[in-house]
Each structure stands twice: as C-alpha cells, then as structure tokens.
Amino acid sequence: MAIYGKQTDQKWQKIWEDSGVFKFREDKDKEKLYVLEMFSYPSGSKLHAGHWFNYGPTDSWARMKKMQGYNVFQPMGFDAFGLPAENFAIKTGIHPMDSTLKNIETMEVQLKAMGAMFNWDHEVVTCAPDYYKWTQWLFVQLYKNGLAYRKNAPVNWCPSCNTVLANEQVLDGACERCGTPVIKKDLTQWFFSITKYADELLEDLEGLDWPEKTKSMQRHWIGRSYGSSVKFKVDQKDLEFEVFTTRVDTLYGASYVVFAPENAMVPTLTTEAQRAEVEAYIEQAKMQSDIDRQSLSREKTGVFTGSYAVNPINGRIIPIWVGDYVLNTYGTGIVMAVPAHDERDFEFAKKYDLPIERVIEGGESLPYTEIGKMMNSGEFDGLMGEEAKEKVTLWLEERNSGSLKVNYRLRDWLVSRQRYWGAPIPIVYCNHCGEVVVEEKDLPVTLPYDVEFAPDGKSPLAKSEEFLNTTCPKCGGHATREADTLDTFVCSSWYYLRYVDNKNEEEAFDKEKINKMLPVDKYVGGPEHAVMHLLYARFVTKALRDMGFLSFDEPFKSLTHQGLILGPDGQKMSKSKGNTISPDEYINQYGSDVFRMYLMFGFSYAEGGAWSDEGIRSVARFVDRVERNFHNIKDILQSSSNTDELRTEDKDLLYWNANTIKGVSEDAEKMQFNTAIARMMELTNALTKYIPLKAHNHKVLEKVNADFIRLLAPFAPHFGEEIWHLFGNEGSVFDEAWPGYDEKALVKDEVEIAIQINGKIKERIMIPSSATDVEIQELALADATIRKETEGKNIVKVIVIKGRLVNIVVKG
Ligand code: ANZ
Ligand code: ZN
C-alpha cells in the first residue's frame, strides 16, 4: 500500500503554499542564506532534465540549510528577452511578448510541480517594463559615469540572424545560434567599459569559492600579459608606430613587422605598386573569423606593403607586411616578427623568404621559443630572461623608443543589438544637442507592441516611426530614439539584485536591503556561463559599488556548476536525435521526489552522465523499501514489544544512525548528493535488519526514526513531509532542526570477530573494541562452540589479528 506518489506531491504543494512555510521573512535571529539558481530562458520546449538537474538538487541543499537554521532566500525568475522568441515571431507571426508570456506560464506550473521552495513573491521577468525600466536605469548610470560609450567598431556580424554578436557568441568562426559563418562589419555600437575593471576582475578571483577551472577560464579571458611597447619609425616617411611584445629580448632578431589587415595605418603605408594586392588581401581577410586567424595549424598568409621600418635597437631597415595572423584587436594590432624564436613568424618567414636570424642561445633547430641567453645582440649578449627584458626596455626608454606595458585580452563589452526583443537603449539623438541620455524620470523607454516582423534583416524598432520620433530631453526639440536594444546579458547581469527588492517602484533596489542580503552565498548553474554571464555580473556589481549603490565587491561568493544529463545513448539530449527525457512523464509515474532523488543518486552532481531508466526504477524501489520500513516501525512503536535494555542490536542501530547523520551532513554540504544518499541506504539496511527482531528498544527506534525522516526530507521533500505526519507530528518537517550526532556514537564499542580453527571459520563473536590481544584470546577460547571443538585437542598456537579474527592451531 504505497502512499507516496504524484498525489503526495500535489497535497503538500498546496499545503505549503497555503501555509506559507517557505515565504521569506526577515529574521534577526537567523543568518541569511541567499541560494541562487541561474534563472531560465522561457523557451517553448518546457522544463527539461537540465533545468531539473540545476534546480532539484540545489533546492535539496537549500532545504537542508533551512533545517540547519539559516534564513534561506531562494528566488526564481525568467531571462525573458532574446533572439529565439524574435526569430520565432519572424517565422510564425506570433509576437515575442505573447509567446514568451505563454511559455513563462507553462514553466511556472512545471517549476511549481518540482516542489522547490522558491520565493515566488520575489519573481522577476526581465521583459516586463517594471524590470527593464531598471535595466535602462543601469545603462543611464553607467553612461553618466563614463562607463558606457558609443564608437565605430568592426563587429562580428551574423548575416543570417542579421545581428552583431559578441566575441563570445562566435564559435569556431560561426554564429553560436544558427551556425552561419560570421563576417566583420563596421558599425557604430554601444560598449560598456569592462576593461577599466580588468585588474580587479582578475585579482578578486583569488578570494572566490568557485571551481578552479572557471576561475582559470576567466583569467584567460581577461588575459593580462606583461611585456613592452616598442616604437618603430617608418623609413623615409614621417610616421611611427608601436608594437606590443612579451619578448623584447629578441628585438635584435626582428627582421620584419606585420600589420593586421584592418589596421588604420595600412592604406598610408601601402605604396602604389602594392596597392591592388594589399586591397585584395584586406577584402578576403574580412571573411575570416578571429578564431581561424589565430589557429596555429592554418597556413599563414600576407602581402608586402612596399614600405620599410627601422628597428630601433640596431637601425636595421626591415620590410612592413600585412598578415591576417595578426589581430587588430590585440595589443596595437602590429607585431615585430622574430622568426628565429616564434612559431608563426618562422612559418611566415619561410613561406615568403624573409631573413631568419638567431638572437637567443639554445636548442638545435629553429624556431627556438624558450628563454635563453641573448646572442648577436651587441652589448646585451649573455643577458637572459627578465633581466634581459628589463635592460633592453630601459635602453629603449632612455631613447624614448619604448616602455613597459601591460596588455589585456579582454575587450570592452559590446552591448547593442540590432534587434527588437530586448530593452531599448535609453538614448536619443537631437540635431542640436547630439547624443542625449534619457532622464531617469522618463524611464522606461517602452518597447512598442505594434511593430512589423519581416525577414528583411531590419530591426522592427528601426522601422517604427511611432517609436523613433520623440523630443529631446535637453532642448525639447525633435529627436530620434536609438533603435538598438541591449544584449540580454545586460538583463542577467543584475537580476540577483532585483530579486531582493523586486517590487520597489522608486529605485532599482534599496541599498540597505541588498547590502544585507548579498552577496549570494551559493550560486548554481551550468558551466557554459563560466565566462560571459559571470564576468559581466561581477563587472556590474563593481561598477554599482563605485557609484555608491551597494557596498560589496563580488556578487557570488560560492559557485557550483552542475554537470550535464545526457540521453540514454550518452549523447547530448536533442530533439533531432530523439533522445530527450521528458521529466513530466516520469513525475506522473513515480512522483517528483523519485525523479529528484534519481538525479541526485544516479550522477555525480558536478559531472552528470547518461540517463538510465533502470536507474530511476532502482530509486523508486528504494523509496518503496523505505516506506515499508516506516509502516513497520509505526506498528512496532504502537505494540508492546518494548525492551529498555540497550543490547548490541540497539547499539548497532545507533551507530549506523550517527554514521549516517555525519556522512549525509558532510557530503550534502559539498553537494555530493550521490554519496549522501548512499549513506541513507546504509541506514535503511540497518533498519531492515532491526525491524524483524522479536523485541525492540522503543526509545532507540523512535530516535533513529525521527532522525532518519529529517535526514531524508530535503532529498524527498513531499515524501518526507508525508512520513513526518504519518508519525503524528505537526507543522512542517522543514521547520525542524537538522539532526546532530554524538562523536562517541561513532565509535562502535563492540566489534564482530571470526574464530577459526586451523584456518576454518567456526564461530563469530562480539568483543569490546577496546579488548587487548590477550583478552581477545581468552574470550575466543572461552566461547562454548570453540570449547566443544577443541576438547581433548592440543592447542599449538593462537594467532590474533586485531579487530578481525582469531585463528587457533590445534593437533590431534
Ligand atoms: C615579438 C616576439 C618574439 C613575440 C618572440 C613572441 C615571441 P601574449 O603572451 O598573448 O600577450 N602579438 C602581439 N600583438 C599581436 C596581435 N595583435 N596579433 C597576434 N599576435 C600578436 O602574446 C604577445 C606576443 O604575441 C607578442 O610578443 C607578439 O609577438 C604577439 F620570440 O613579439 B611577440
Ligand atoms: Zn536637443
């Protein structure tokens, strides 16, 4: 007579909602704990196994924390702007607002069916005007503080989505969303000055409890590199340029320089004889992605400009080339080429027959790219490494030809999108006043509903007269609105702040409130957000801090990435492969707790793995077994089979109970849910052994039972609550304290040992775990079975292996 099932879920979800047990209330006596799961994109494909794997186990963790006495805040919302809804509108004519709100409705129902203790009162939906008003406010603050600006820039352009993509959205040279090869295009774009925070973003990683891999990806993305800047004069022309190098000790070997094709100086440097060839080269380079251009395996190409430069250290006249392996967005977009000591330069020099001269000792063949003593370098010969770099840079500095330089890979954050479904950028252009930011009192700049979706590559906003025409906030004259919208990463860069104070109509958030509630104590989400979202959120927090809106340095103190649940075939789930798992079906069949517990027990949380139907069935059987035990225990406790004696069996059960509490507490703390549940299985086994005994110590059983229910509840919340009430308890089990244990109970005071005679096991006995070898020998020989077996025989030797066995060697 199974009691747990889908109906149990529904019963408790209703009771929880009606009683408001999980409502967040300020509580001075409890420490706050902000548990955050990455909010979801309201796509049409409903809540999938990936959402579940993020939210289910994290909710279990949060429930445990609540029982441990924390005042848990666990909000949920929707990252609701973005391309997919707009592309869907272009295809089907269904307005993004309509499809998005409908999807949110469906997902809310599904999220509620999960039975997580989300604080729905604090929900945020980024496409709602009362949210994006404040996203625009954030833009205005950044703008007023010189952290948002517009510039003409070559951007990654997807010709199919007709939009600009951030570098991070270009994968292997193709659009992350549609796979179309990305091209370069010059456009006026809005940027946030994240590079101003490069050092702090890098250095503060140290103090974060984040996965090492994620920190290292951020470090790489920021890419701080120490080197030198070297000035070269152009031969016969009144021009000069700078290069960034990390190997200034190789300067004597610089036998040519290479400019990125897009570098603004290239047309000036190109001679008439070379112009046609250079222009053709620049045209083809536009078609290449930065990723391809940096690829080591790709053949290096280039063209000679016809001009020459002067190497400042030895006066040598060296040719100036253009080559697409040099990126215009890194350093100065120009490199001094040292083919003897750099792979790419070597390959290029070989191909175009340029001079290769060794200036660093070491290695047999070229290129030799390691550190070594300088040679063929005049007065610097024999110097090496950092000292060599310092001396050469000093020499250059004295002649005003160079200096030390720190370079970053990080670029400013490109935030404008030529799309409709996003927060409008609050800027107007006036004929008199130029670029004017919208006043805070005039926010939000509302996204118009009535627009035309056509697959013509133009943003609906750019075609909407009603939206575009406005008045200038400064002079009152006619002005035109910016038609670009903000990257959705802007919306998600601050949502964790708004959750705390989501109904505030006066401000984005109350400073005092968020200083109390933040930073987020535990953030859980997919590793695909290791760089962009997490870096942008860190930047926004730091910028808001510097503007005085909050006073903490980092938004997310501790971070965990859950792994990926794959299809039964071990492949990433996808509709086209037909290997997706639909949580709803399993929940209908087994109940959401079984589904959640399987996700926690069947996989390592950080790694994930392939779905298995047998796996979820075995968890369902476990829940059945636990449930039978509970019914049996209830019968026992109501019967009169009580004994007050503390027998070996009772002590054993108490031992397993303490051991389980310790194990579950420690493992679940680290989000190692699979081993935590394995511990509970051990305690279940111990109970299954205890239940059939003829007599039971009611006090012991009652205690172990109450502890077990409380341990189990966070992992199987509906089932746990049901059982808690089965035993006549009142109130929610989640208002109970998490069980503790006595260290002493972890030491078994009796252990079982085997007694062998001539190597064959004859008996097992319990002995005090503190017994000495002599005492163990005495106990073994005194045992009735052994006495009978050894009667009349000659005991030659007794071997005691502590804690395990006694072997008695007999003769005759
Ligand atoms: C001369 C040299 C000699 C270099 C040598 C390396 C080895 P990181 O560490 O990533 O900062 N470089 C500079 N700007 C570049 C650009 N825009 N596109 C492509 N390559 C560029 O790398 C710095 C090194 O990358 C610089 O040091 C430069 O080559 C190259 F034996 O200068 B080196
Ligand atoms: Zn004006």
Automatic annotation (TrEMBL):
Ranges spanned by the short sequence motif 'KMSKS' region, renumbered to the chain: 572-576
Known EC number: 6.1.1.4
Residue stretches making up the Methionyl/Valyl/Leucyl/Isoleucyl-tRNA synthetase anticodon-binding domain: 653-772
Protein localization: Cytoplasm
Gene3D superfamilies for the chain: 3.10.20.590, HUPs (3.40.50.620), Isoleucyl-tRNA Synthetase, Domain 1 (1.10.730.10)
UniProt GO BP: leucyl-tRNA aminoacylation
Residues that hold ATP according to the record: 575
Domain Leucyl-tRNA synthetase editing: 219-396
Domain Aminoacyl-tRNA synthetase class Ia stretches: 410-600
GO molecular function terms noted in the UniProt entry: aminoacyl-tRNA deacylase activity; ATP binding; leucine-tRNA ligase activity
Similarity comment: family membership: Belongs to the class-I aminoacyl-tRNA synthetase family.
Record protein name field: Leucine--tRNA ligase
Annotated source species: Proteiniclasticum aestuarii
Protein encoded by which gene: leuS
